[in-house]
Amino acid sequence: MILLSDPRVAAVRSEDDGDELVDLRGVPELRLDVRAADAAGAYARVRRGVADRLLAAQRALPVGLRLLVIEGYRPYQAQLEIFTGYRDELRRRYPEWSPERLHVETTKFVSPVEVAPHSTGGAVDLTLCDADGLELDMGTVVDATPEASANACFTAADNIPAAARRNREILVAALSGAGMVNYPTEWWHWSYGDRYWALMTDAPHTRYGPL
């Protein structure tokens, strides 16, 4: 399992091909949740290449299922606040951890700002729902932490119900088939064009840099 704290991620050459941000509120084929909505509407924006791949993934889903997009682009400051907040929470809970372990454990749930996929517009948090918008059982809620879920938030976790496992397999098949990559500690997090995607697909550089 390669974490976002791995030096190989930061070592990927960052380039940006200028692919525009698309507001998913204007893409009626995709269902958008508002739980992560912000005043500027950043949550609803992703790069064009990501939007195209989400549409392809949705077409690959079984009849009656839909992607439910929760968050796309996340500005630098918002990413920094989430990272430092979670790191400080872990520091309080585990004062015996070394700074190095604290950093690694933090990155199982939040990316360091210098390599953050969401801040490129190339990442998205999502889940599955039915035609009426009712979310499927995925084993944990979106944004469940490793500590709170006993690592059930890990995509390949085996401590979840069989039905949730099948639902995750459906999500994985659709999104990976569309060319996106998953962050393995978060079943809901998928990206394309960022440093993590580039490392996992052996691309020579990113398509998208920080915005």
What does this protein structure show overall?
There is one protein chain. This protein has 211 residues and is α+β, with helices and mostly antiparallel strands. Helices cover 33% and strands 13% of the residues. The protein has helices at 7-10, 48-60, 76-93, 99-106, 146-149, 162-177, 195-201; strands at 21-23, 31-32, 45-47, 65-71, 123-130, 181-182, 189-191. The strands form 2 sheets. It has a 5-stranded mixed sheet, with helices on both faces. Strands 1-3 form a two-stranded antiparallel ribbon. β6 (181-182) and β7 form a beta hairpin. α2 packs across α6 and α3 (76-93) packs across α4. The longest helix has 18 residues, at 76-93. The radius of gyration is 16 Å and the shape is globular. The two termini are 27 Å apart. The model has no long low-confidence stretch (mean pLDDT 96).
Which percent bin holds the helix content? 25-40%
For the biggest β-sheet, the strand order reads 2-4-5-7-6
The SS-based structural class is: alpha+beta
Q: Give the tally of β-strands.
A: 7
Distance between the termini: 27 Å
Which word captures the global form?
Answer: globular
Radius of gyration: 16 Å
Order of helices and strands: HEEEHEHHEHHEEH
* Mean pLDDT rating: 96
Oligomer state of the chains in this structure: single chain
Low-pLDDT runs of 5+ residues are none
Tally of helical runs: 7
Strand content: 5-15%
Main sheet overview = 5 strands, mixed
